[in-house]
Design goal:
Blueprint lengths: L6 H24 L2 H8 L3 H7 L3 H26 L3 H13 L13 H9 L4 H27 L9 H22 L2 H16 L6
Helix pairs in contact: 1-2, 1-4, 1-6, 4-5, 4-7, 5-7, 5-9, 6-7, 7-8, 8-9
Length: about 200
């Protein structure tokens, strides 16, 4: 049964959804309260009536951005028939990153947040770290299931595989963004594809 949101909950959700692309594009330090009030049309008092401070808005915005992308990936993984195809979802979905299809404005929130908050904002850094660890575990679980199903080799180093896929994708996103060259990501995703293809049992 769906729950009807209260006025306060609707306002809070509106603030999150409206500011999420701003934080993801300008970063925590680059986003001012003026940016937030201008985008939402709300007063500073209204913002602070729903959030303790700007950081709390930023944390909620990260959850919103990451949750949006994660849902896209989970839905596509669930639709894929083989474990190989389930892993390939990561390559195909992140390929769309540079094509502005299915991603929030500003690009990958995990990469953006990790770079900015590495040494400056503990709570935001922890959000990004948690997202990476969750991603790693999701890949490991798919590899384990693929091994159990007889689809992948038994000698796979699961953690190395998961971390390599993540590093290649996030590195590709970073390179393509910083050089404004989408083909860099395409090239790196070919390596991700080759890595995933190499997991399969050779018949």
């Amino acid at each position: 049964m769906s729950k009807t949101l209260s006025k306060a909950e609707r306002t809070r959700q509106f603030i999150i959804e409206t500011t999420a692309p701003i934080f993801n594009t300008k970063g925590y330090e680059g986003t001012s309260m003026s940016d937030i009030t201008e985008a939402t049309g709300l007063t500073k008092g209204s913002i602070y009536g729903n959030f303790e401070n700007k950081e709390e808005v930023a944390l909620a915005a990260f959850d919103h951005n990451h949750g949006y992308i994660k849902k896209i990936i989970v839905d596509k993984v669930n639709q894929a028939k083989t474990y190989h195809d389930k892993l390939m979802v990561y390559a195909t979905v992140y390929h769309s990153f540079t094509r502005k299809s299915g991603f929030v404005k500003g690009g990958c929130p995990v990469l953006n947040t990790a770079i900015e908050a590495d040494d400056t904002n503990g709570p935001l850094r922890d959000k990004a770290a948690g997202a990476i660890l969750n991603w790693k575990n999701s890949i490991i679980n798919l590899v384990k299931a693929g091994i159990a199903a007889g689809e992948f080799r038994h000698d796979i180093d699961q953690e190395q595989t998961a971390l390599s896929i993540i590093a290649l994708i996030e590195g590709g996103v970073m390179i393509s963004k910083i050089t404004n060259n989408p083909t860099s990501l395409d090239t790196i995703l070919k390596t991700v594809t080759a890595l995933i293809d190499g997991l399969k049992v050779q018949l």
